[in-house]
Design brief:
2 helices, alpha+beta, 28% helix, 89 residues
Length: 89
Amino acid sequence: MLAGDPAVLEAAVIGAHDEQWGEVVVAYVQPRPGATVDPSALKALCARSLTGYTRPTAFFVVEAIAKNAVGKIDKASLRAAHAALAARS
């Protein structure tokens, strides 16, 4: 869904801890070379196609999405990085 945006090269979503809901969806997106990702446009895109509880609550634009040795998105690494970011906030 998020990769359908022309500015997005790759996207990954993870579940992140939330005090109110227990867990919420958080999106990490990597822009195409030379493109700029607009998180508000991604939010609008998701609002048109996804139900409320399946929509990302936050969008993080990153230079690259971590991959494992096989070349798949390393969600464990994303979760750890997100937890570290949340701990600093």
